[in-house]
């Protein structure tokens, strides 16, 4: 690492194109100082960086400056700068500060090189596999190549908003990867210091390995809100169970029970197989008093109105035979107010053994957000002190118990309500040490880059995709969709992209058909994007039959099992696209490239080896001329029509093309 950075420093030691000037010393030393005409020849201390390099920064005006170093008490010239002049009877290095440089290809000048010891640039997946990235200001260099001892290198270039990014996906059998970058810009090719390589040691990695379960890439999931999916065992119903088929009002949907349970999910196996799903994500199933179960009463017990541990084991075994994965919801930010620890706080007050499990504000403790910290000030949801070792020990037991049943992973609730270190240093290793192939998904609604650094999760619920797809399908601009999705595709570690949970709706949102004003073609565009885009589609129960509903609680109505009330056009569309996706590896884990964008039309391709799928979609009521020549004969799965060239994108349409 140090040798590569030295290359850049040699360049900076002579010229700088901004007023922030940096000086570097790359050798071992106990103390490094600088003197010069810009310090009035007073000694100024360097700081040692995390890479082991000494650095001094200062703001300077345009001009010519003289300086020398003092290393461990001895005055020397800057070894990285061969430009020096006599000043006041003594040799000094010179540094020229020029006017702001505008990046331009081929001018033999590079403004900045962005590369350091972080996952953003050095991203080891596992022993023998790593991604290396390097960035430059936009249009500053002509090309970059990698010289290494790797067995295989795949290169990709990404034009970002204000930078150009080169990514090298590297495979090697060697324990030590030797590599350097060739940076071409005009006549000069800049590479590693003195032609030497720097090393990544796979046996002693500077950055943690980060791989995600292979099975999770491109998989198709189905989200089930257990209380509202299907009633398979009426003996565990509440006495006041409501009529499954309605009519419904707000209070009923918020507070009343309709009888959905785990046996109902088991009984729906054939339906789920017909639909084609490959994984089930369950909202919380542990004992709680509410319909949603986010107010956990006992994490070590299945809610008795959902079933027993035996029923849960039967469910896992039933779906394991069908290769359908089971993901549980982990709610570790807060408990219910009747969780045993909080109950003792209410009962014993200052004598309770569990005061430090929560954040108590004042005594006496009564059920009020004024008395203890809560999730969004709901007194039913007291916030846990997850730094308490006993709390962590309890959740370690919870994770261990349910993973011993054979579940395949966890979706973790409200992750931004807890410091990142809890996830990366406790939950992630606790799960992976039990089963390294378990999937960990965080519920986060924004840019999740920070959660992938250590890492904390294998994936997140991809609300960025959801918002972009809905906005586009509602008649939005093509470039906006591409730019917004590119913002994470080009930023997240590449190994997570095909495992991102691309949902269009959830228990926390309006249903997708409602969001799209029940416009069938808008829905087909949104679902078409979901089933062909980079990531793993997640279908919210009932969306596939055209169920409607506004925000919570109206998005949580019981599943409509009366087929006469299904929108069969929507159901058959889902089935067709799911089957197509399952049969094309290009859609599961292939590359993604935008071929054209024009007003409301997007043309992109997914490619895996010889398998190629081209998607053309137009969100507006206008015909768009695109003149797309195809490399052979392609068939549209939706119409059966064949094409060698596409001249226009029809209004409010989607085409999914493949070679037979």
Automatic annotation (TrEMBL):
Q: Which SMART domains match?
A: Aamy
Molecular function in Gene Ontology: hydrolase activity, acting on glycosyl bonds
Residue intervals of the Glycosyl hydrolase family 13 catalytic domain:
223-581
Keywords, comma-separated and alphabetical:
Glycosidase, Hydrolase, Signal
Q: Which organism is it from?
A: Tepiditoga spiralis
- Ranges in a coiled coil: none
**Name of the protein:** Glycosyl hydrolase family 13 catalytic domain-containing protein
Judging by the UniProt lineage, the source's domain of life is: Bacteria
One GO biological-process annotation of the entry reads: carbohydrate metabolic process
Q: Where are the transmembrane segments?
A: none
Signal peptide range in chain numbering? 1-18
Keyword field contains Signal? yes
Q: Which InterPro entries match?
A: AMPK1_CBM (IPR032640), GH (IPR017853), GH13_cat_dom (IPR006047), Glyco_hydro_b (IPR013780), Ig-like_fold (IPR013783), Ig_E-set (IPR014756), O16G_dom_2 (IPR045857)
């Amino acid at each position: 690492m140090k040798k590569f950075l030295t290359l850049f420093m040699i360049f900076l030691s002579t010229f700088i194109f901004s007023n922030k000037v940096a000086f570097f010393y790359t050798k071992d030393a106990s103390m490094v100082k600088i003197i010069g005409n810009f310090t009035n020849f007073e000694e100024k201390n360097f700081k040692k960086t995390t890479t082991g390099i000494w650095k001094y920064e200062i703001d300077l005006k345009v001009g010519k400056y003289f300086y020398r170093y003092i290393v461990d008490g001895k005055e020397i010239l800057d070894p990285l700068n061969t430009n020096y002049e006599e000043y006041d009877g003594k040799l000094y290095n010179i540094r020229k500060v020029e006017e702001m440089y505008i990046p331009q290809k081929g001018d033999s000048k590079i403004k900045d090189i962005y590369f350091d010891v972080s996952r953003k640039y050095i991203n080891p997946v596992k022993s023998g596999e790593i991604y290396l990235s390097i960035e430059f200001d936009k249009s500053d260099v002509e090309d970059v190549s990698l010289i290494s001892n790797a067995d295989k290198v795949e290169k990709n270039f990404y034009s970002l908003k204000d930078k150009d990014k080169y990514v090298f996906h590297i495979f090697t059998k060697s324990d030590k990867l030797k590599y350097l970058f060739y940076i071409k810009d005009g006549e000069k090719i800049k590479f590693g210091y003195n032609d030497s390589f720097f090393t990544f040691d796979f046996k002693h990695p500077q950055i943690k390995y980060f791989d995600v379960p292979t099975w999770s890439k491109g998989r198709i999931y189905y989200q089930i809100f257990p209380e509202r999916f299907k009633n398979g065992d009426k003996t565990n119903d509440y006495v006041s169970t409501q009529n499954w088929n309605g009519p419904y009002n707000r209070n009923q949907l918020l507070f009343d029970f309709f009888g959905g349970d785990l046996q109902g999910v088991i009984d729906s196996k054939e339906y789920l197989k017909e639909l084609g799903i490959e994984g089930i994500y369950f909202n919380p199933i542990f004992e709680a008093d509410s319909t949603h179960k986010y107010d956990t009463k006992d994490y070590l017990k299945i809610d008795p109105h959902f079933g027993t541990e035996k029923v849960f084991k039967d469910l896992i075994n039933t779906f394991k035979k069908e290769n359908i994965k089971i993901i549980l919801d982990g709610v570790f930010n807060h408990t219910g107010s009747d969780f045993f620890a909080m109950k003792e706080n209410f009962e014993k007050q200052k004598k309770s053994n569990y005061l430090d499990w929560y954040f108590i504000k004042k005594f006496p403790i009564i059920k009020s957000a004024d008395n203890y910290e809560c999730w969004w000030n709901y007194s039913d949801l007291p916030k846990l002190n997850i730094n308490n070792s006993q709390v962590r020990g309890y959740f370690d037991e919870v994770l261990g118990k349910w993973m011993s049943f054979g579940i395949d992973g966890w979706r973790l609730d409200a992750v931004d309500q807890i410091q990142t270190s809890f996830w990366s240093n406790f939950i992630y290793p606790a799960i992976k040490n039990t089963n390294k192939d378990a999937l960990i998904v965080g519920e986060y609604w924004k840019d999740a880059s920070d959660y992938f650094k250590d890492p904390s999760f294998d994936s997140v619920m991809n609300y960025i995709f959801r918002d972009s797809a809905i906005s586009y399908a509602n008649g939005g601009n093509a470039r906006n969709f591409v730019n917004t999705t590119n913002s994470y595709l080009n930023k997240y570690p590449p190994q997570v992209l095909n495992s991102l949970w691309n949902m269009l709706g959830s228990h926390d949102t309006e249903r997708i058909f409602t969001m799209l004003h029940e416009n069938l073609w808008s829905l087909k565009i949104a679902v078409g994007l979901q089933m062909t885009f980079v990531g793993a589609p997640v279908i919210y129960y009932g969306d596939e039959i055209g169920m409607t509903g506004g925000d919570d609680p109206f998005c949580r109505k019981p599943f409509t099992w009366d087929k006469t009330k299904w929108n069969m056009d929507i159901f058959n569309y889902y089935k067709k696209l799911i089957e197509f996706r399952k049969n094309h590896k290009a859609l599961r884990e292939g590359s993604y490239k935008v071929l054209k964008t024009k007003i409301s039309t997007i043309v992109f391709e997914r490619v895996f080896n010889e398998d190629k799928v081209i998607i053309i979609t137009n969100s507006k009521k206008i015909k768009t001329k695109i003149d797309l020549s195809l490399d052979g004969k392609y068939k549209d799965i939706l119409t059966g029509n064949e094409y060698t060239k596409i001249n226009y994108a029809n209004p409010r349409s989607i085409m999914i093309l493949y070679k037979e």
